[in-house]
Design a protein that fits this description.
alpha+beta; 14 helices; elongated
């Protein structure tokens, strides 16, 4: 926007003030300063740029300068006072607009993630923030060593990386409950993995879960909940993968859908391990390492820092206590499912 495009209303009374100050050498009055602040607020609300507005003030001062017979120093001081007050009002209006925008954005995010608003109205509001909810969207949730802050350095770093790589492209980055969220179109396969990489690098740790793309206005909620559930599941299972895909963990919600049935399986299969010296936990860790290593005893022993002989003894002890042989395919699935169930139910730390 050029100086000529600045309406005269934002310079109202400015030439008169400069003429009076030049003639008398006085400073601007409180009322005059407040009028400059008010005009600055109006200019900000109208969307004018501060640089062009300052240029218009300087041009106006230059235009009346030949007609001001007084002290140049007094006139320059008045120009400085007037522009400073005008800029203060301009910045005050901008800060208020930013706070209102942040409040509106936060309200929208809350409504979007918890489905508390009419879907039609929600879709209309979403367009303001670059989302088209008629399309499918996926959500990635990053959980770091420390809580993410909306305006924090890590959030800005990740956002800048996304902007540099992908531009706007209907991507929304926000925080919720100390986690960092990225909402992206379902067909943009590269955005969320890249977000995960940046979030992990920015905090030198943490974990990111990506929900499946889901269609429609309610799809964001579903994908968000899947990502949250994946993070919770990884915590309970002790998974150490930095990147989780909800689609890869769908078996676990199925296993826990009937909690009572899973508790019965754990009780009937694994409770006998409580009779072992040291309790059930060491033998549960043995089974976990054995199954995670593809039922290769040597590899499981290495993971547990045991000798192969000690590993074999533990497996035999499990067979003796439970009646199920971990190396027998007929027993293996039952034992492995029970071990997963124990981790999901946090047994034996919690009673079944």
């Amino acid at each position: 926007m050029t100086e000529r495009e600045i309406p005269e209303q934002y310079l109202d009374g400015y030439a008169r003030i400069l003429a009076e100050v030049s003639a008398t050498g006085r400073r601007l009055t409180r009322q005059e300063l407040e009028s400059r602040r008010a005009l600055g607020e109006q200019a900000a609300d109208a969307g004018h740029g501060l640089r062009a507005l300052v240029g218009a003030h300087l041009a106006a001062a230059r235009a009346v300068w030949p007609d001001t017979p007084g002290s140049a120093d007094s006139t320059l001081a008045a120009v400085q006072q007037a522009i400073d007050a005008f800029a203060e009002g301009f910045e005050r209006a901008q800060h208020l607009a930013v706070r209102q925008e942040e409040a509106s954005r936060r309200e929208f995010i809350d409504d979007l993630l918890f489905g508390r608003s009419d879907l039609g109205r929600l879709a209309e509001r979403a367009e303001r923030f670059g989302l088209r909810l008629s399309h499918a969207h996926a959500v990635a949730v990053a959980q770091g060593p420390a809580a993410y802050d909306e305006g924090g350095a890590v959030t800005r770093q990740v956002e800048q990386a996304l902007m540099t790589r992908f531009g706007i492209r209907d991507v929304l980055l926000t925080t919720k409950d100390g986690r960092l969220l990225c909402i992206a179109p379902g067909h943009e396969d590269e955005v969320l993995p890249y977000f995960a990489k940046q979030a992990h690098a920015a905090t030198d740790g943490g974990r990111v879960a990506i929900g499946r793309p889901q269609p429609g206005p309610g799809g964001v909620v579903q994908s968000y909940e899947e990502a949250l559930n994946a993070l919770e599941m990884a915590e309970r299972l002790g998974l150490d993968d930095p990147l989780l895909h909800a689609a890869d963990l769908l078996v676990y919600p199925v296993l826990t859908r009937d909690r009572q049935a899973m508790a019965d399986l754990v009780r009937n299969t694994l409770v006998p391990l409580m009779a072992a010296r040291g309790g059930a936990q060491p033998l549960l860790e043995t089974l976990t390492a054995y199954f995670d290593s593809g039922c290769v005893a040597a590899e499981a022993a290495r993971r547990l820092s045991l000798s192969v002989r000690a590993m074999t003894y533990r497996l035999e002890r499990i067979h003796h206590l439970t009646g199920a042989n971990p190396s027998d395919p007929a027993h293996r699935y039952m034992l492995q499912t029970a071990v997963i169930g124990a981790r999901l139910l946090d047994w034996p730390a919690k009673e079944l």
